[in-house]
Design brief:
The protein is of the alpha/beta class and 505 residues long. The chain has 13 helices and 19 strands. The chain has helices spanning 35-55, 69-84, 107-126, 142-151, 167-176, 222-226, 234-246, 272-280, 300-308, 325-330, 337-350, 369-382, 409-432, and strands at 60-65, 88-89, 97-102, 131-136, 157-159, 181-183, 204-208, 210-211, 230-231, 251-255, 287-291, 315-317, 355-362, 386-391, 438-446, 453-458, 463-467, 476-485, 488-493. The strands form five sheets. A six-stranded parallel sheet has the order 2-1-3-4-5-6, with helices on both faces. The chain has a five-stranded mixed barrel with strand order 15-16-17-19-18. The protein has a three-stranded parallel sheet with strand order 7-10-11, with helices on both faces. The termini are far apart. The structure holds S-adenosyl-L-homocysteine, iron/sulfur cluster and FE3-S4 cluster. S-adenosyl-L-homocysteine binds at residues 105-106, 219-220, 222, 257-258, 292, 294, 319, 321, 359, 361, 390, 392-393, 395.
C-alpha cells in the first residue's frame, strides 16, 4: 500500500481531492472539523467495502424525506456522505440502509413516520442486516425518542438536526455497536462547511443561508427543534453558489425560516437585500429564489432589489397564517391585518407580475367564525397565486398548546373548507392571467404520466407541461402558455431551435 495520508495535515479546501482509501484510520481521529468527518468517512468506506465483498454485490441506501426544503437540503448532505462511503443510492426502501429524515411541524407528519416505520420493520425481518436510521426535526423531541426506544427497537441510529454534519462519525458508531445509537443535541452555534453534498437535480439547488429560527410563533415547533437563528458567512454562501454554477446549476433557492433577518447576527452584519445583490452578480447563474419571508421583516430595500433584478424570480412566499389581527397577536406574528395588506399592496404595485403565495392556519385556539372571515377577506384582497392551508395542530411545548380555548374539530373543518374554496377560486383566476403569453420556463423533468411531455417552471413558479425530450432538462426555454388547467398550463415550446443561452429568468 502507498504511504498513508494523515488527514490532520490536509487543508480544508483540499479534503475533497483526498483518496479516502489511503487515509490512515488506525491513528486517532483529528479533533477538528471537517477533517474529523473525512476520517470517519474513510473508516465507513472500509466497513461498507468489506460488507459488499461478503455479499458479493453493492450495498444500497435509501433516504426518505419528510417535511420542508430544509430537510430536503439536509438529505442531500446525507446522500453526499453515503455516496463517498460506497453506498449506491436507491429510491427503494427495501435497501441495506434506510434513513428517514423526519418532520414534526404538524401531528400528521409524525404519524406518517410511525406508519412507515411499521413497514420497515417487516422489511427488516426478511433482511436482518438492514440498518435503519432516523434523523430530522421529530428526533429533537424527547417524547418521540422515548416512544421509539420503547416501541421501535429495531431502529439502529437516531440523531437530530444539530449534529447532522457528524453523520459519518455516527455511522461508524452504528456499525461498531450492537445497540441503538442515539445522539441528540439540544442546540448548537456551530456551522461546519465543506462537507460533500449529492444534489437531487443537476441544474438547481437549495442553499442554506441560515439555520434555526428566533421568532417563536406561538403555534410553531420549529424554533425548538431547529434551534436559534444562525446565518452563514456571505463568502461561504457565494463560494458555494459559484461552485454549483461551475457544475451546471442555473437556479438556486436560498433557504431559511426567515430569510429577511439574514445577516443580522453576523460579525459583519449584512442585509438579505445586499446578499441578493451579491448573488445576482454571479455569472452563469440565471434564476434566484428564496424561502421563507416573514412579513414583519420584509424591507422596502428588498422590494427594490427584487424589482430591479434580472435574476430574482417573480415569486414571493409571504405566509399570512391568519387575517385576524386578534389571532395574529395570539400567534405572536408581530404584524396586523392592515400592515400585511399594506405590504402586499406595495409589492403588487412595485412588481405587478409577481406571484404571491402564502400559508394559512385554520383553527388556532380562540379562533371564531368572524376571524375566519377576516382571513377570507385578506385572501380576496391579496388574490394569492397559491396558498397552503393547514388545520391547526397542537404541538406539545409550544405556548398555543396550553391555551384553553382550543377550537372543536367540526368548527375547524367548516372554516377550513370555506378558506380552501376561496383560495382555490382566487388562485385559479390568478394563474389564468398568463393565458396566451410566451414565458421562459426551466425544463425540470420528464412528465411522470406522459413521457412525451417535459415539466417546466415559470419564473412565477407556475408549472407548464410541453412536448419535448430529455435533452431540454436544465435549460430555460420560451414556452407558449396555451391552455390553463387550473393550477398548471399545457404549453408549446416556441422555437425549440432557439433555446436561449443567456435568458432572463
Ligand atoms: N418559517 C416559515 C414556516 C415554516 S413551517 C414561516 O414562518 O413562514 C411551514 C408552515 O407550517 C407555516 O407557515 C405554518 O402555516 C404551518 N404550521 C406551522 N406550525 C403549525 C401548526 N402547529 N399547525 C398547523 N400548521 C402549522
Ligand atoms: Fe415557525 Fe414562526 Fe419561525 Fe416560521 S417564523 S419557523 S412559523 S416560529
Ligand atoms: Fe418540518 Fe422541520 Fe421543516 S419540523 S417543516 S422539516 S424545519
Amino acid at each position: 500500500m502507498d504511504s498513508y495520508i494523515d488527514l490532520k495535515n490536509i487543508p480544508t479546501k483540499e479534503l475533497k481531492y483526498v483518496d479516502l482509501d489511503r487515509v490512515n484510520v488506525n491513528c486517532s481521529p483529528p479533533d477538528f472539523e471537517p477533517q474529523r468527518q473525512y476520517y470517519f468517512m474513510a473508516k465507513c468506506r472500509q466497513i461498507v467495502k468489506l460488507e459488499s465483498e461478503r455479499l458479493g454485490r453493492p450495498l444500497y441506501a435509501c433516504i426518505q424525506v419528510f417535511g420542508c426544503q430544509m430537510n430536503a437540503r439536509d438529505s442531500e448532505k446525507l446522500s453526499g456522505i453515503l455516496e463517498i462511503i460506497g453506498y449506491q443510492l436507491s429510491e427503494d426502501e427495501n435497501a441495506d440502509f434506510v434513513i428517514f429524515n423526519t418532520c414534526t411541524v404538524r401531528d400528521n407528519a409524525n404519524q406518517k413516520v410511525y406508519g412507515r416505520l411499521g413497514h420497515l420493520n417487516s422489511l427488516k425481518k426478511n433482511n436482518p442486516h438492514m440498518k435503519i436510521a432516523l434523523c430530522g426535526c421529530m428526533m429533537q423531541e424527547p417524547s418521540a425518542i422515548e416512544k421509539i426506544r420503547k416501541s421501535y427497537r429495531f431502529v439502529d441510529l437516531i440523531f437530530g438536526t444539530h449534529n447532522i454534519y457528524k453523520f459519518a462519525e455516527l455511522l461508524t458508531a452504528m456499525f461498531e455497536s450492537q445497540e441503538m445509537v442515539v445522539d441528540i443535541w439540544e442546540d448548537t452555534d456551530q456551522i461546519v462547511e465543506d462537507l460533500p453534498v449529492e444534489r437531487k437535480y443537476p441544474f438547481k439547488s437549495g442553499i442554506n443561508i441560515m439555520f434555526g429560527c428566533n421568532n417563536f410563533c406561538s403555534y410553531c415547533i420549529v424554533p425548538y427543534v431547529r434551534g436559534r437563528e444562525r446565518s452563514r458567512n456571505l463568502e461561504d454562501i457565494l463560494g458555494e453558489i459559484r461552485k454549483l454554477v461551475s457544475e451546471g446549476v442555473v437556479e438556486v433557492m436560498l433557504l431559511g425560516q426567515n430569510v429577511n433577518s439574514y445577516g443580522r447576527n453576523l460579525a459583519r452584519p449584512i442585509t438579505f437585500a445586499n446578499l441578493l445583490r451579491e448573488v445576482e452578480k454571479i455569472e452563469g447563474l440565471e434564476r434566484i429564489r428564496f424561502m421563507t419571508s416573514h412579513p414583519k421583516d420584509l424591507s422596502d430595500e428588498l422590494i427594490q432589489v427584487m424589482k430591479e433584478s434580472k435574476k430574482i424570480c417573480r415569486h414571493l412566499h409571504l405566509p399570512l397564517q391568519s387575517g385576524s389581527t386578534r389571532i395574529l397577536e395570539a400567534m405572536n406574528r408581530r404584524y396586523t391585518k392592515e400592515q400585511y395588506l399594506d405590504l402586499a399592496r406595495k409589492i403588487r404595485e412595485e412588481i405587478p407580475d409577481i406571484a404571491i403565495t402564502t400559508d394559512i392556519i385554520v383553527g388556532f385556539p380562540g379562533e371564531k367564525p368572524e376571524d375566519v372571515e377576516e382571513t377570507i377577506d385578506v385572501i380576496r384582497q391579496v388574490k394569492y397565486d397559491n396558498a397552503f392551508t393547514f388545520i391547526y395542530s397542537k404541538r406539545t411545548g409550544t405556548p398555543a398548546a396550553s391555551m384553553e380555548n382550543q377550537v372543536p374539530e367540526n368548527i375547524v373543518k367548516e372554516g377550513f373548507d370555506k378558506v380552501l374554496k376561496v383560495v382555490q377560486d382566487t388562485a385559479r383566476n390568478r394563474v389564468a392571467l398568463l393565458q396566451g403569453q410566451v414565458q421562459n420556463a426551466l425544463a425540470e423533468e420528464v412528465n411522470q404520466q406522459d413521457s412525451s411531455l417535459i415539466t417546466g417552471r415559470l419564473s412565477n413558479n407556475t408549472i407548464v407541461h410541453f412536448k419535448g425530450d430529455e435533452s431540454l432538462i436544465g435549460k430555460i426555454v420560451p414556452v407558449y402558455l396555451k391552455e390553463c388547467h387550473g393550477f398548471y398550463y399545457l404549453g408549446e415550446i416556441r422555437d425549440a431551435g432557439c433555446v436561449q443561452s443567456t435568458p432572463l429568468q
